[in-house]
Amino acid sequence: MAKAKSFEESMDELEKIVSELESGESSLDDSLKLFEQGMKLSKNCQGMLDRAAQKVTVLLEDSEGKPIEEKFVENEE
Amino acid sequence: MSQEILTVTVSQLNHYVKRVMDNNSYLKNIWIQGEISNCKQHYSGHIYLSLKDDSSVLRAVMFRSAASSLRFQPENGMKVLARGRISVYERDGQYQLYIEELQPDGIGALHIAYEQLKAKLSEEGLFDQQYKKPLPEYPAVVGVVTALTGAAVRDIIHVLGRRYPKAAIRIYPVLVQGDQAAGQIADAIAFFNRHCLADVLIVGRGGGSMEDLWAFNEEIVARAIFASDIPIISAVGHETDFTIADFVSDRRAPTPSAAAEIAVPSAAEILERLTLLQGALISCVRQSLEKKERSFERLASSSALLHFSESFKDFQMRLIEAEKNLTQALENVLQQKREKAAILTEKLDALSPLKVLARGYAVATGADHVPIVSAKQVSPGDAVNLRLQDGTLDCFVKGVHQ
To answer: CB distance B289–A24 less than 8 Å?
Structure first.
């Protein structure tokens, strides 16, 4: 699930950057670089969440057993 | 005479019979259906009772260790299912059932099947904690195996949409009760795995009777869940119902809604976390800037530097002082030398023969320039030379007086 990984990776990387900064061991130059990187990542993650619209599909198997996806239509009974 | 008859003691016989029974594998773990009578709870915690049916009675005991996990109180007349081993109480020569597990008998066969499958799969290790897979933190796709109609699927979609709309939902519709249900559920789980169609799976249905939920107690479903590489959250029935699927899945949720809560993070919480992380980024950089500034200031006004200049000043003072002292000492020595020299010069001066001559003395020398120090050295008529302060006198000796 490539998309999820990029979100998960972004979150992980962001957490790593913050803890690296919090350790206070990086030089001022590195700190500023990490800061920029971290802000970019967090903005990206925010964007991914904000843009999300729920997608619901129903899975079916075709004659060869391959998956087919159809839009889910709620079926009140 | 009398013929030897081979006899055994009662104890030996009881012991032998006990051994025979204990070695019978069928009697080691057996489910028995019956009605409780003569039930007595001993103060020690052990329960003594009999199980009976229309024509027979079986003595039974449930020791405290087993009795403590009872979820109900056994009573006379109660129909129960008891599991345990058959053995002999040697003292009384009485065989009895040692009960390990006791349940009210409501559904009979189904319950036994459930218990037997549970025991079997448990023994195989299908419920072991070591096989539980962690759920993904941020699943992109949540797979759902349930009926397309009914509250369960609506609840799941609703909760997922509210919490984390970023996750796509893929529903594989199955029958959740009836003869075909178990097979369909197992196939659906395998299908998701075969085509890598989800990051996490919710398998379940809404509540119902034990018969309604039965598909989730079938071995084929349990095995499919166990074989799944995709982590599975079971969500069968309401709160109190535990199915075999619940035991074997990676996580058990009490309801379908709860399963959806477990399956995804809350977007609101992530956004909150992101805000926190951004704050941390900003304050970290601000702090490291401030730290640099402070360390610069500290360096500039460093006490080490201050101390150094102070000790330097001190040193300088001492140096000046020493220089002064040295000059002084040198001066003193010179002065002493000078004074000594003056005294010596004076002394020398005083000793100088010229000085003596200046005081009116004269030095007499003979013709051979030998100083005349005795009257005996000369005779009248001798020529002597007198040396005065500023010249010499050539003289003749007129007379010698001794």
So the answer is: no
Instruction: Please indicate whether, in this complex, the C-beta atoms of B284 and A22 are within 8 angstroms of each other.
Output: yes
**Which residues, numbered 122 to 151 in chain B, qualify as contacts with chain A under a Cβ-Cβ cut-off of 8 Å?**
136-141, 143, 148-150
The CATH classification number of B139-265 equals 3.40.50.2300
With H, G, I as helix, E, B as strand and everything else as coil, classify residue B339.
helix
pLDDT at A2 over 50: no
Residues of chain B with CATH 2.40.50.140: 10-106
- Closest approach of B208 to chain A, Cα-based (Å): 17
DSSP B130-148: GGPPPPPSS-SEEEEEE-S
What is the CATH code for B10-106?
A: 2.40.50.140
Closest CA–CA distance from residue B279 to any residue of chain A (Å): 10
Q: pLDDT for B37-68, tens place per residue?
A: 999 999 999 999 999 999 999 999 999 999 88
A55 at B interface, C-beta within 8 A: yes
pLDDT tens by residue, B77-101: 888 889 999 999 999 999 999 999 9
